[in-house]
Amino acid sequence: MARNSHTLSLFLLFLTLVGTSHAGGIAIYWGQHSDEGTLYEACATRRYTHINIAFLERFGNGRIPKLNLAGHCNPSTKSCTRIGDHIRYCQSRGITVLLSIGGGIGRYSLASVEDARDFSKYLWNTFLGGTSFSRPFGHAVLDGIDFDIELGSAQYWQYLARFLKDYHGVYLSAAPQCPFPDRFLEKITLRDHGNNGQLLFHMERYFWGCRRQRARLEAVLSRPKC
Question: Which residues form the GH18 domain (predicted)?
């Protein structure tokens, strides 16, 4: 559903599941258009409750992970560290900031359960609460990971979610596509919601092709334990 053409004008409805309660909020994808403004500016509008930084578009199966922020910064020159200040500013305003992995283009897949485990460690140490010599956003600690899986194999994503969930306080989100159940995310959405993290789901409110599926999606998303 989420494509690399997402800009700040694309709004998503977030359904947040916490225990037996759920609440709504506005979420956006940021990072795929050089004219969309800075992350700081997006948060300063106070319009959004969640922002997904998009995308980590290459990873898994022996690939060197690649972060693509479409001209906002270049991780290889360490120019993305300034975005870390923006991330902390957003969080100070109560906005949840996640890293979106996948997207509509790129090269990514998981080759095995062990590959999923290794990638979860990479995400934890590079973007979340761990430590690494290579942290594109410097000392900023993102709140979690967004699964925008649209390409390649549907295998092993549930294990990645499970390993990430084992790190205390990590938010997980998923962007289901129109066909229901989503072949990439079905096992995550239905089985891997646990107590250590919060599992968030979102879908495009005005993606007309999804209208017939929306009622069935919401029925699943409203369950206390997915």
Answer: 24-226
- Helix ranges (H only) for 45-141 are 81-92, 113-127
CA dihedral (216, 218, 223, 225) positive or negative: positive
Paired with 12 in beta bridges are 27, 204
Determine phi and psi for 111, rounding to 5 degrees.
Answer: -90, -20
From the candidates 150, 186, 204, 218, which is the catalytic residue? 150
**H or E element, residue 165:** helix 157-165
Residue 101 token pair: 């992995």
**CATH architecture of the domain covering 12-221:** Alpha-Beta Barrel (3.20)
Q: What is the tens place of the pLDDT at every residue in 125-149?
A: 999 999 999 999 999 999 999 999 9
The tokens describing 54, both together, are 């998009």
Q: Is 57 a catalytic residue?
A: no
DSSP SS3 for 76:
helix
Residue 49, C-beta contacts closer than 8 angstroms, at least 6 positions apart: 14, 25, 26, 27, 94, 95, 96
Q: Can you give the pTM of this predicted structure?
A: 0.79
25 closest CA partner among 178, 171, 184: 171
